[in-house]
């Protein structure tokens, strides 16, 4: 029974939905009308078919016909109908869904929804009523136009769809295209989707056309085939939009306002017409692009840094307005050969055209006032630069490396030329500088080769120019114009120098000019004579450096000559200054040195007046090394008789002169540094007045008592013929290398070389033990330097000075006892010795520099009690573990191993730079009044020191320390009887008792005082 009911239901269903054929198309009856269906018995459609609005069904001839409205099409109605070519749908259906249709063309009615799957149509006209369109697998569809009514469009596997047009609408389109739909040409005239990546799947896109109502570009990442983009409504190109799109050739955005950073970076774009609406171009926007020409419109306000950098195909540039440029905008555009700049352009960016190696000429705008840093650097083809009247400054490196730049005319009002501005402009032959020029930077004209330099102002104005300079990294610069400060001034490289129309060969400093500015004539080989009048007070640094002068006349009274003022390097000195004429008006020459060094010095005064000239110089002399002839009132001087009553021969007084004999009077107290240095013909220095001329007798001293003489550094340096020094016995101190490389020193026997009261040096092999004789007050510089075998040295009680490096490198010396009269210890005096303990008496006033005891294994230091400050730097005792400081002065406890410190009663203040070791264990202060410490908040001690260090203070002062700044932070404070260390005598043979600094018998290691039976005491550090 059950099976019977099922069969009846099926029969009823067939009865209610029977199939029929009408004009070659099969339909099935459905509620409300007829639906196109698949042919019965496996048949198919072919050719063209038309689906009308109504169909007529008449199953039997005797039955009346029935008319149906066509209301739909079955999804599979055309399945396997391979011969079907065209379907025309006239029926007013609303929704269409067809699967597997092989018709090449489907004519659609005014429907609302279309869904075609596996439809082999080649064309499709979407009706203007359609809202939702889905095309899945339409492998023969080449073009598609989407009307503005469509709100949803889906495309998938439309494998040959190349041209897609989406028509204009105010409504938003929701678009989905799969990556198997290879659209190459896309036109969009409406807003699409809520996000910006709706084209992400279109990897084959070649041409993109955007309608007027599209104001923002979609994301174009990965569009490696994109060539053309157009969009009338686009106003902004966002950052990186076309970054790396090497296929891109042209774009058109006629209403564009903004191009952001990296928008076209490394793209293949060859041309772009920038509209007059454009306001800004971002950083690196076109960096590395393939542009061949560019016109920047007058509307453009700002161009970011590197905007067109490395556009190697760019050949021409036109700027139309007063645009602001950041740095490196056109850097390394190596093919750029044509640049047009408007007259109203007020500024260029730094490094704007740097490396544009094809640029031949540039005409600078009328309103331009500054040529910025490196603007045309390394424009190697640049030959001509035209200035149009208002440039005030050429900044650093502006034209550096423009090796073909031939000439430059600088009209007023140019004021400054920057560092290296024209460095390596080797083709520049002529240069005109205006009288408005005030400053030239270091190395500005390095490597130029001028035949003619013209200054349009006056000599006074030229002397007022500030020629800056480069840093010199050596003491003796080579010849002028080879990569040091002389390259600042173009005159260094000029064959001829004109002021106005006049060629400059003879120079006299004009009135009202009291100083010759630094580097004013440095290296100018055309200059022959220089006159320094009485009103001139100063010759600036390098002013005449490298000038091969015939004559220099000095009429000034007090003249300062700065470093390299008249310097001429040694190998061309013979070609250099031939004659220096010095007026008797001259009273003093000061400065860094480098006075004019000449073959002959003419002085129009007397020898007494010459001797009264003070040469307060740091180096150099008037005479060429050992060859300079001194003429006094026209008479050559070979013998110098220093008149009686003279007490001093000033520094450099006769340095380098061709002298044979010098007679010094008994009144003489000092021979200055370098006073007779390089006098190669000097044979004798006689301590006598036997040849005093009549003119000098009136000046003779009434007493014949001998004075002790101090000899300055290098006083007789390199006097290779000097054999006779009769004044040696009255010398009390000698400077460094005073007799270096003299015949007198060479003939001295091995052993201690003693000159008067000074031990000059030890010749030959030094024994292990040396006792310096009593009466010696000075051990000279380097006297025992490097004598590693020396282990013991005994100083006389008379010793007052130990000079620089006196015992440097004597690694065998492990201990010394300094005499009480010792006043000064020179720099590096005991550097690199084996000293482990130092005891400095209160008479020592100075320990020079910070190297006196450097690189020594010193473990303990005692500075005896005294009220006078000691001039020293504690940093030299960096390895000390125990220190007693009994005197005020400059010191900083910086030794990382310092464990025990004692401050004597005279130390009332600790300086601001006091830094104590973090490892200190014991701190003893002998003053009942807490020493003043620089300021609160300064890290004098670490927190560990405050917590763990034992602070020992005098009896009855505990409360004072507990409330005093800095000291109040110590948590472990004790009172004790303490005493200082002063006036210590030594005795080697006596019984003794040993006390600590607290006055009690010593029971522990540290600083102790040993009292001997004969009453003498000594202090030392017991370990």
Automatic annotation (TrEMBL):
Q: Which residues are in coiled coils? A: none
Query: This protein is called what?
Result: Leucine-rich repeat domain-containing protein
């Amino acid at each position: 029974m059950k099976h019977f009911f099922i069969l009846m239901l099926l029969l009823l269903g067939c009865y209610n939905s029977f199939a029929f054929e009408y004009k070659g198309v099969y339909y099935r009856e459905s509620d409300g009308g007829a639906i196109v269906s698949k042919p019965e018995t496996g048949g198919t459609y072919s050719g063209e078919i038309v689906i009308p609005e109504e169909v007529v069904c008449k199953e039997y001839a005797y039955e009346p016909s029935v008319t149906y409205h066509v209301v739909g099409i079955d999804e599979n109605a055309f399945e396997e109908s391979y011969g079907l070519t065209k379907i025309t749908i006239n029926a007013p259906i609303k929704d269409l869904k067809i699967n597997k249709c092989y018709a090449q063309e489907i004519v659609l009615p005014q429907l609302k929804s279309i869904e075609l799957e596996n439809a082999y149509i080649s064309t499709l006209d979407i009706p203007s009523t359609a809202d939702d369109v889905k095309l899945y697998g339409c492998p023969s569809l080449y073009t598609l136009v989407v009307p503005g009514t469509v709100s949803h469009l889906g495309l998938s596997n439309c494998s040959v769809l190349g041209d897609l047009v989406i028509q204009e609408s105010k409504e938003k389109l929701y678009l989905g295209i799969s990556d198997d739909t290879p659209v190459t040409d896309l036109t969009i005239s409406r807003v699409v989707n809520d996000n910006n990546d709706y084209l992400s799947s279109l990897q084959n896109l070649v041409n993109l056309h955007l309608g007027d109502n599209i104001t923002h570009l979609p994301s174009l990442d990965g569009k490696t085939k994109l060539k053309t983009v157009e969009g009338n409504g686009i106003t902004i190109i966002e950052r990186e939009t076309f970054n790396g799109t090497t296929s891109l050739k042209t774009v058109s955005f006629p209403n564009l306002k903004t191009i952001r950073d990296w928008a076209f970076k490394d793209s293949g774009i060859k041309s772009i017409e920038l509209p007059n609406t454009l306001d800004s171009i971002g950083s690196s926007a076109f960096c590395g692009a393939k542009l061949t020409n560019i016109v920047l419109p007058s509307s453009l306000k700002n161009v970011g840094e590197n905007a067109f950098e490395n556009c190697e195909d760019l050949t021409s540039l036109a700027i139309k307005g007063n645009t602001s440029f950041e740095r490196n905008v056109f850097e390394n555009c190596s093919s750029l050969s044509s640049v047009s700049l408007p007259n109203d352009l007020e500024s260029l960016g730094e490094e704007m055209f740097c490396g544009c190696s094809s640029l031949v000429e540039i005409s600078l705008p009328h309103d331009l006032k500054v040529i910025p840093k490196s603007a045309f650097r390394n424009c190697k083809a640049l030959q001509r630069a035209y200035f149009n009247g208002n440039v005030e400054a050429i900044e650093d490196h502006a034209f550096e490396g423009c090796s073909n730049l031939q000439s430059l005319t600088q009209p007023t009002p140019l004021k400054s030329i920057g560092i290296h501005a024209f460095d390596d402009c080797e083709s520049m032959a002529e240069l005109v500088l205006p009288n408005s020029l005030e400053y030239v930077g270091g190395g500005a004209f390095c490597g130029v080769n001028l035949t003619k330099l013209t200054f349009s102002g006056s000599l006074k104005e030229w002397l007022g120019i500030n020629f800056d300079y480069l840093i010199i990294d050596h003491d003796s610069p080579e010849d002028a114009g080879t990569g040091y400060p002389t390259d600042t001034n173009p005159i260094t490289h000029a064959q001829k120098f004109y002021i106005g129309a006049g060629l400059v060969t003879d120079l006299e400093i004009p009135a009202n000019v009291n100083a010759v500015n630094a580097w004013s004539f440095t290296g100018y080989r055309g200059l022959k004579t220089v006159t320094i009048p009485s009103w001139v007070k100063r010759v600036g640094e390098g002013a005449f450096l490298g000038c091969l002068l015939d004559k220099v006349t000095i009429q000034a009274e007090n003249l300062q000559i700065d470093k390299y003022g008249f310097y001429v390097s040694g190998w061309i000195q013979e070609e250099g200054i031939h004659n220096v004429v010095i007026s008797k008006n001259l009273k003093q020459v000061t400065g860094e040195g480098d006075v004019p060094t000449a073959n002959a010095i003419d002085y129009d005064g007397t020898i007494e007046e010459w001797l009264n000239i003070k040469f307060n110089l740091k180096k150099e002399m008037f005479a060429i090394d050992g060859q300079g002839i001194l003429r006094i009132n026209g008479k050559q001087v070979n013998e110098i008789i220093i008149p009686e009553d003279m007490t001093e021969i000033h520094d450099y007084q006769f340095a380098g002169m061709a002298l044979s004999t010098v007679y010094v009077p008994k009144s003489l107290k000092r021979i200055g540094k370098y006073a007779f240095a390089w006098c190669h013909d000097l044979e004798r220095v006689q301590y006598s007045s036997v040849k005093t001329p009549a003119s000098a007798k009136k000046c003779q001293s009434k007493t014949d008592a001998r004075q002790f003489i101090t000899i300055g550094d290098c006083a007789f340096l390199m006097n290779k013929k000097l054999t006779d020094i009769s004044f040696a016995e009255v010398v009390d101190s000698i400077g460094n290398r005073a007799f270096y490389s003299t015949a007198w020193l060479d003939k001295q026997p091995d052993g201690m070389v003693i000159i008067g009261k000074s031990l000059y040096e030890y010749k030959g092999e030094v024994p292990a033990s040396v006792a310096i004789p009593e009466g010696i007050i000075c051990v000279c510089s380097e006297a025992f330097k490097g004598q590693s075998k020396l282990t013991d040295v005994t100083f006389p009680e008379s010793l007052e000075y130990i000079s620089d490096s006196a015992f440097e490198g004597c690694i065998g010396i492990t201990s010394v006892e300094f005499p009480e009269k010792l006043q000064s210890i020179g720099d590096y005096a005991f550097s690199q010795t084996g000293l482990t303990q130092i005891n400095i008496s209160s008479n020592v006033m100075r320990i020079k520099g910070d190297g006196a005891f450097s690189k020594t294994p010193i473990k303990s230091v005692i500075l005896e009690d005294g009220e006078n400050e000691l001039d020293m730097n504690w940093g030299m005792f960096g390895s000390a573990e125990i220190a007693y400081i009994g005197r005020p002065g400059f010191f900083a406890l910086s030794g990382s191993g310092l464990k025990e410190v004692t401050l004597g009663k005279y130390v009332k203040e600790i300086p601001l730079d006091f830094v104590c070791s973090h490892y200190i264990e014991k701190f003893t202060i002998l003053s009942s009044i807490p020493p003043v410490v620089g300021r609160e908040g300064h890290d004098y001690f670490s927190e560990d020191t405050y917590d763990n260090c034992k602070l020992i203070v005098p009896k009855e002062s505990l409360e004072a320390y507990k409330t005093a700044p800095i000291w109040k932070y110590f948590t472990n404070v004790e009172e004790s009887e303490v005493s200082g260390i002063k006036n210590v005598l030594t005795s080697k043979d006596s019984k003794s008792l040993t006390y600590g600094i607290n006055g009690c018998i010593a029971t522990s290691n540290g600083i102790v005082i040993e009292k001997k039976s004969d009453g003498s005491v000594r202090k030392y550090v017991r370990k």
